[in-house]
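[RESIDUES AND BACKBONE]
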Amino acid sequence: IEFATSAPYRAAIARTLGVGSPLRQDRPKPSLFAPAPVSLAVLVAEDTPANQKLAVSLLRRRGHTVTVVDNGQDAVREFDEGDFDVVLMDVTMPVMDGYEATAAIRQRERNEGRHVPIIALTAHAAQGTQARCKSAGMDAFLPKPIDVAQLLELVEGLANQTAAPTCPKSDPD
């Protein structure tokens, strides 16, 4: 309990969430928490409950509709049943990982002639991971812990087809 309430721990959590130092009582940037210009339907495929809650909280605060699943197989099923503007895809999940789920979604899209942006989320940002995400058909890559501003920029930028950073064409191994 003492560890969880220590100042360095609270500061680390605040930095991870992108909300500034809790010791200085900084307010979050209004642009991060103001309603987005357009409400999006976002599919979040993430198996960790804490990461699910964080994504849902951030996206709903911006006015987006969020559907959460905890494995790749359910992500593919929800994708088939829903109409999503963007997908946040953890690459390491049970049943079917994010790479396999993305491949299945991209196959369905080829048959239908559409493309929904998929943003890879991973704590394993090792050399070659970005290239693997790109070759799997993911549009962008975001390492964990998540940078809140970057997450919102990618989700809203890619969904609205504006210029947003994407996975590099190659990643040296």
Q: What stands out?
A: The first helix runs from residue 7 to 17. Residues 21-25, 162-173 have pLDDT under 50 and may be disordered.
